[in-house]
Amino acid sequence: MVLLPSSAKYISGGLIAVSFAFVFWLNGLGNPLRDLALVRRGHTVQGKIIDTSEDIDSGDYGQDASSHNETYVYETSTGQRFIQTSPSSSGRLREDIHLPVSVEVEYLPENPSISRIKGTGSETIPEWIGRTLLSLSLFALFASPGVLLVTQGIKRTSLVKHLKRIHHEKL
């Protein structure tokens, strides 16, 4: 087994932490570039929610934490048919829903598989800017421990090089 110097451990641990923060951010908050593309170039068509699912977990303090998603179908202006599932949303499903439910669906004409139920993302550029700044702030918060580890690793590497140089100068 090869032991890494402490600086390499700090840097690799920090990079892993930043990677986890990025994956959590992207999966949890969605891709802001797709959101912007749908705001700018999205086409709207009628679609239908054809299925729903709900997940109820026990929370830390005994309360239930619920999330749900919808499976929807839509057809593009060129006649292509797509069935997609929305990302999970927090909260309970309404009990009075009778499927199928008519909804508006936004999609990108150059890549119709990128879609969302209208109203589940940004609708204007200013709204997109606000959401993106908030999500980037959350990413910065999640990634900061990893960035600190990388920074400490780089400082330790510089310190080791400096101490070696001083040692060689004394010889």
DSSP helical segment count: 3
- Total strand count, please? 6
Q: Which blocks of ≥5 consecutive residues have pLDDT under 50?
A: none
How many separate domains? 1
How would you spell out the order of helices and strands? HHEEEEEEH
Structural class: alpha+beta
Largest sheet: 6 strands, antiparallel
Task: Quote the distance from N terminus to C terminus.
Answer: 33 Å
Please outline the helices and strands.
Layout (H helix, E strand, L loop, with lengths): L5 H24 L2 H10 L1 E16 L5 E12 L5 E5 L3 E2 L10 E8 L2 E7 L7 H46 L1
Helix pairs in contact: 1-3, 2-3
Outline the structure in words.
The protein has helices at 6-29, 32-41, 125-170; strands spanning 43-58, 64-75, 81-85, 89-90, 101-108, 111-117. With 171 residues, the chain is α+β, with helices and mostly antiparallel strands. Strands 1, 2, 3, 4, 5 and 6 form a six-stranded antiparallel sheet that branches. β2 and β3 (81-85) form a beta hairpin. α1 packs antiparallel against α3 (125-170) and α2 packs antiparallel against α3 (125-170). The longest helix is centred in the C-terminal third of the chain and has 46 residues, at 125-170. The model has no long low-confidence stretch (mean pLDDT 83).
